[in-house]
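[job 4417] fold queue: 2 targets
>>> target A
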Amino acid sequence: MIVTKEKPLEEILGYLEPYEKILVVGCEGCTHPPRGLREARKMEMLVSMGFRVQGKEVSVRSTSIAKQCDLYNCRVALEPQIGDSQAILTMACSIGAGALTELFPDIPVFPAQNTVFIGIEDKENERFEEMCRACGDCLLGETFGICPITRCAKSLLNGPCGGPVDGMCEYKGYTNKCAWIEIYERARKFNRLDLFRKFRMPRDRRVETSPRKLLRGELK
């Protein structure tokens, strides 16, 4: 999932201050926590109240679509609803903001969220954890499902640095497990220490040079 964190209302109101007709667009896709219709309606209320406190009356509407990152469905769903909107406030991740900008170039699009990372939800411990940086050259087949690019604070490719203590990474005061020690333990468990000992050359950064584009046929 793509984990997002809501921006402060003051920042959002600052974006929208010049406009009087605003459309809040939720997304029912993979963003988490949910940023769909219920959250869009809540944001509609907050924006309206925020401006009312400032002595300004604005027209705010809200809607939601299945996935803002799907350009075709996004166009079909939103074009009839745009009307005379002067600004769009998207509840989606930064991908949604970019998609709406692409589809509606004559209307400014503003984000209500900060996109934080791609990760998992640990409901028992009420937290989210980053798991992937979309580097374009996945190593999980050699590291037994533990990504050193993401879960090693230094993104090391050939084992741990000299900092771990009792299996804990020195970064952030030994509060996170050392990814490479975890990789070693899994390699030993499956009798594949050959993969742990494998020397990896520096990564080819060309595969993650932005902005990246792929044709559908290239995904096979």
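>>> target B
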Amino acid sequence: MIKKMKKRIIMGLAVLLIAISCGKKDNKNVDKDNLDKTTTKISKDSENISENEIKKYTEYVNLKNVPNEEEWHDSFKEVFTKEFSDEKGNFKKPSTKGIEGIIKTEETVNIFSEYVKNLEENIKKNPKFDEVDKSAENLVQSLNNEKNVIVEIVDYYKNKKYEKDNFEEGKKLAEKYKNVTEERKNNYNAYSLALDKLSEKIGDKIVKKAETDGKTAMANLVKYVNEANNFANTAFAKENLKFDKEEVKKLRELQKKMQESYLKLKETTDEAATKEGINTDEFKEIKKNSEELLENADKMIKAAENNTQKDVAIYASKFLNAHSRTVDGYNIISAKK
């Protein structure tokens, strides 16, 4: 369910960017099933954001979530952590079952290779996002390092080298793997932070475009939906929804921004929205869903602070449902613009 919802979040964000940059009332240019096709049709009359910015940024958002999806956790990392590490994370001699399991994860490198290929292709695209591109390059390097260590480990056990040295090399490889995964985690966090900054920058451009066009209600709506997407993308980048103290602090900061942007949206009158061609009932429905969204975001964070994982999952699900309705409502409005 979470994986499906995350795809909806990315789709909603992309449609948001496309619709605002178009600045047109004719929605025939927006093909929601083929965003690449849509962006090539976008008019170039926007002085604030280009179609290439939208395409590259949206792909970066998509790639941000990939390393946390199920196939990564169901592959090498999960088996190695369970069968080759003790409770403190130190190496332990694996069982025959563990060795067989790690050999079966040999195809894990294909997951790395595909992701690295997609990331490298996006880095090369224009325009250049200096900080994000650089952090993505560092992530690529650490991913390649991790992939190489995985190949070494699988080869070591596949060829039964442990029988000759009584797992001595296995201990070294386990430590090596721990180091490269820590390096990858740090570089991923740097990449994620750089992308958050870019998201805020692009979001500001979109809002300014709406404000320049005299669309205050739309500007407030875009600002709020963008903040809601930022929260959702950060929260649900973690498949297991287990957050450390720094991650909880980050979620609280994003929730505060979302709350502030919602208050501006709430202050926007139905009359002002109507003057901009926004359907009153649809506008009211977004406000209603947003109150539920904010309430469950707050409860989800409090549950994370209290380490009550069951409650985190419950409120996360409720948040996603409210977020989905909010994004769907926004997409209906933007498609009419």
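[job 4417] complete. Note on B: Residues 23-47 have pLDDT under 50 and may be disordered.
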